[in-house]
Design goal:
The complex is a heterodimer. Chain A contains 13 helices and no strands. Chain A is mainly alpha-helical. The radius of gyration of chain A is 24 Å and the shape is elongated. Chain B is elongated and about 60 Å long. A three-stranded antiparallel β-sheet of chain B has the order 1-3-2. In chain B, strand 2 and strand 3 form a beta hairpin. Chain B has one domain: Winged helix-like DNA-binding domain superfamily/Winged helix DNA-binding domain (Arc Repressor Mutant, subunit A). Chain B is of the alpha+beta class. The longest helix of chain B has 25 residues. In chain B, 22% of the residues are buried. Chain B is 58% helix and 14% strand. Chain B starts with a helix and ends in a 7-residue tail after the last helix. Classes of the chains: A mainly alpha, B alpha+beta. The interface between A and B is medium-sized, with 22 and 18 residues.
Chain lengths: 313, 113
């Protein structure tokens, strides 16, 4: 395999964003095809360089081939759609049915989410795992909020240590998820602005008093509904083949949900907070894409340096 | 007016199923066979063959098996399934009706005047 062919296959691998289980088979098949083609072209009298150029021209552009491979594999089954939307459904039902009152139910849901995420993460990171992964960030957020209840100096100190660590951990998870597809990072982070919106509507100070708990009880059916809407969005996301439709769906659903939160909680959230939430939602949607671009640029620079070093030696 | 590319795209499933009905084949073999039997008419970007084959496989119309060659290399052979044969029979009949209708218009007989 020459560097041009390796780069062609690497680029397809990167753009087709397949699950690990499919990736090896698809790339190995393309590799065999390219080898057969180059063998035939060199047999017919072309030089190796000419054969490579002809072969890559006849294979088709990276974007075209990768997009078609993506669309052949992207559509999940109904079972996968249900599994992916399950954490949002559970979370939604917890509020609609008022289970959030009971520590027992909360613990069961949290343990289920953690166990499912760990299982999926260590079993090839299937597409459904990323929506579960988003909810494992909640305990981290909850601990951060709990730290606010410590005496002031301790609270400040722990927050100064805790939040950078939590953000670093979140960054590592996003980088890992981006290795598959930045869209899954957006999918994973999507509930966070919604949770933040509800939290700010219920407790702008960040502390939960008796009054705030009453507000939570009042808004619970709407909170549940917003997560059930999210579950339906995610199910549709899994069933869609085209990437641009998936991006559009996440963006529209995220923005609509934030708007609905502001609409339901009349007087609780001001215009400034609304725009802040919209900004966070755009950040959640686009930040993984920007990060992927930066990481890709870094990867290309490393490859170029390796190529230059190889040609010098 | 549909371009040749559109025509190939619209008929790719029937073409692939039709080739695999005769014998199991691997990707490169399919490309060569299609080109040879259509006298170069059906020529497309070869990398796009695999997504088409994988879509057919996901629909259950074909299945695939990896085979190791004597030189140690592996090839993925595609086979038509019973569901694929049923689908092909239906598509062949539709193509037959379509071609007959086109012929009747492009080459009008004495009765049509």
């Amino acid at each position: 395999m020459t560097p041009e062919l390796i780069q062609y296959l690497e680029s397809i691998k990167h753009s087709a964003r397949l699950e690990y289980a499919d990736e090896t088979a698809v790339l190995s098949e393309l590799e065999t095809h390219i080898e057969d083609k180059i063998h035939e072209l060199t047999e017919s009298g072309l030089t190796k360089e000419e054969a490579i150029v002809t072969c890559l021209g006849e294979m088709g552009g990276i974007k075209l081939v990768a997009r078609q491979i993506y669309e052949a594999y992207s559509q999940g089954s109904w079972k996968q759609a249900l599994l992916t939307s399950m954490p949002h459904l559970l979370f939604g039902l917890m509020f609609v049915l008022n289970w959030w009152h009971y520590p027992g139910w909360l613990s069961i849901v949290l343990i289920l989410i953690l166990a499912t995420t760990i299982y999926g993460w260590w079993h090839g990171k299937p597409n459904w795992v990323f929506s579960w992964l988003g909810y494992t960030l909640l305990p981290v957020l909850a601990v951060g909020i709990a730290l606010l209840y410590l005496p002031k100096i301790w609270s400040l100190l722990t927050l100064l240590v805790y939040f950078p660590m939590a953000l670093w951990w979140l960054f590592r998870i996003i980088v890992q998820t981006n290795k598959r597809d930045w869209l899954f990072s957006s999918l994973m982070l999507l509930p966070l602005p919604i949770i933040a919106g509800w939290f700010l509507a219920i407790s702008p100070s960040g502390k939960l008093t008796e009054f705030n708990l009453q507000l939570l009880e009042y808004f619970a059916p709407w909170i549940g509904l917003s997560f059930i809407v999210l579950a339906l969005t995610i199910a549709a996301f899994i069933r869609l083949r085209q990437r641009w439709l998936r991006v559009g769906l996440l963006a529209t659903s995220g923005m609509l949900t934030v708007t609905l939160i502001v609409n339901y909680t009349v007087g609780q959230l001001n215009t400034f907070t609304f725009f802040g939430l919209v900004l966070v939602m755009w950040g959640v949607l686009l930040m993984p894409a920007v990060l992927e671009r930066l990481l890709k640029r870094g990867h290309i620079t490393i490859l170029r340096r390796r190529k230059i070093a190889a040609s010098k030696s | 007016m549909a371009t040749r590319r559109d025509l190939v795209k619209g008929s790719s499933n029937s073409l692939l199923l039709s080739l695999l009905e005769q014998q199991p084949m691997y990707g490169y073999q399919i490309v060569k066979e299609l080109e040879a039997r259509s006298q170069g008419y059906f020529k497309f970007k070869e990398g796009t063959l695999y997504p088409a084959l994988h879509r057919l496989e996901k629909s259950g119309l074909i299945t695939s098996r990896w085979q190791t060659l004597p030189n140690g290399r592996q090839r993925r052979y595609y086979y038509i399934t019973a569901k694929g044969q049923t689908k092909l029979a239906l598509e062949k009949s539709q193509w037959h009706d379509f071609l007959t209708a086109i012929k009747l218009i492009l080459q009008p007989g004495p009765s049509s005047s």
